[in-house]
Amino acid sequence: MLGAAWGVEEVTLRLYPERELPVEVERRYGGWLERRVAGEPAHHLTGTCPFWGREFEISPAVLVPRPETELVVETALELPLPNNARILDVGTGSGCIALTLAAERPGWRVSAVDRSSAALEIARRNSNRLGAAVALYRGDLATAVAPPWDLIVANLPYVPKDVLARLPLEVRHDPVAALDGGSDGLDLVRSLLSDLRRLLRPCGGAILEIGEGQADAVAEIASMAGLAVARRVRDVGGVDRVIVLQPR
Ligand SMILES: C[S@@+](CC[C@H](N)C(=O)[O-])C[C@H]1O[C@@H](n2cnc3c(N)ncnc32)[C@H](O)[C@@H]1O
Question: Which residue among 43, 49, 63, 64 has the greatest number of ligand 1 atoms within 8 angstroms of its CB, and so is best to mutate?
Answer without folding.
Answer: 63
